[in-house]
Design a protein that fits this description.
By secondary structure, the protein is an alpha/beta fold. The chain has one domain: Rossmann fold (3-Layer(aba) Sandwich). Helices cover 39% and strands 18% of the residues. It has helices spanning 5-32, 49-53, 79-90, 97-110, 113-117, 131-137, 142-155, 181-188, 216-227; strands at residues 59-62, 70-76, 122-126, 160-162, 166-168, 192-194, 204-212, 231-240, 254-255, 261-262. The strands form three sheets. It has a six-stranded mixed sheet, sandwiched between helices. A two-stranded antiparallel ribbon has the order 5-6. Strands 9-10 form a two-stranded antiparallel sheet. α4 packs across α7 (142-155).
């Protein structure tokens, strides 16, 4: 977030204390009551095999401005997958980060990132969170995720590097709380910008988000990065909200009532 040096230092210190306190409380809690699966509460599991498998069922949707032509998600945003993502995102279950990163890495390889980059460096760009969201959670939840994702991709032969080049200004509400594509588009419209001094001209980019609703945030990010001269290959997310419509002809652009093209039959 772009903030004054004094205020930024104070907020950084507060966030650090919150992380330490949360970690201490979590350790005490787990010692008294061992954790359960983030998706279904099965004892002594971060993600049980069934819930982990729910993040290996890709969904895709048409996304203008990206080279591959589509954005992808690991899972549908419902049931155990929804509960697990919310436990990680809003309730501090950071133990899910390695497993979520593994799911994203598998999806990236499945959709052909390694073949698309052909040895060139690819920038892993997380979608931004508002300052208010970061303060409320005590962390920018996306950053540890994309760092681990980049490491996994490098281990798989993809020259990946994290580049948090986007920031969000003046946004007050969660996108998953907004109703309708016009409200969500209005929430992020014009609020996503490049960080000062960021340079992506000529760079290959893969966007990463936690939850895709109407795709408004992804489209805004693609537009900003494209304006900066980046070549955005695709966008990945942990989960995609909304009911899916499967097209028997495997055409990805099936339009729902709110205009979001979705299809579980990823090409």
């Amino acid at each position: 977030m772009d903030e004054g040096s004094g205020g930024g230092f104070v907020r950084t210190a507060v966030a650090a204390r919150q992380r330490i306190t949360r970690g201490m409380l979590g350790a005490v809690f787990n010692a008294v009551l061992p954790r359960g699966c983030a998706g279904c509460d099965m004892p002594d599991m971060v993600l049980c095999p069934s819930c982990e498998a729910s993040f290996a069922r890709p969904r895709c949707y048409a996304l203008g401005g990206v080279e591959i032509g589509f954005g992808y998600a690991c899972a549908a945003y419902r049931g155990a997958a929804r509960q697990a993502v919310l436990a990680w995102k809003d309730h501090g279950d950071e133990e899910c980060t390695p497993m979520f990163a593994q799911a994203l890495a598998a999806l990236a390889l499945r959709v052909g990132i390694r073949e698309s980059v052909r040895g060139r460096e690819i920038l892993i760009v997380p979608t931004p969170s508002s300052s208010r969201s970061v303060r409320r959670r005590g962390r920018w939840h996306m950053l540890p995720l994309v760092r681990r994702l980049a490491r996994l991709l490098r281990e798989s032969g993809v020259n990946a590097r994290v580049a948090p080049v986007l920031t969000m200004r003046g946004v007050a509400h969660k996108s998953v709380e907004m109703r309708g594509s016009s409200q969500r588009a209005g929430r992020v419209g014009g609020h996503i910008v490049m960080r000062r001094g960021a340079d992506v001209e000529g760079s290959l980019v893969m966007l990463v988000d936690d939850i895709v609703t109407t795709g408004s945030t992804m489209r805004q990010c693609v537009g900003v990065l494209g304006s900066g001269g980046a070549i955005v290959l695709t966008a990945l997310a942990l989960a995609q909200a909304g009911e899916s419509q499967r097209n028997p002809d495997r055409q990805p652009a099936v339009r729902r009532g709110d205009g979001l093209p979705v299809d579980e039959s990823c090409p």
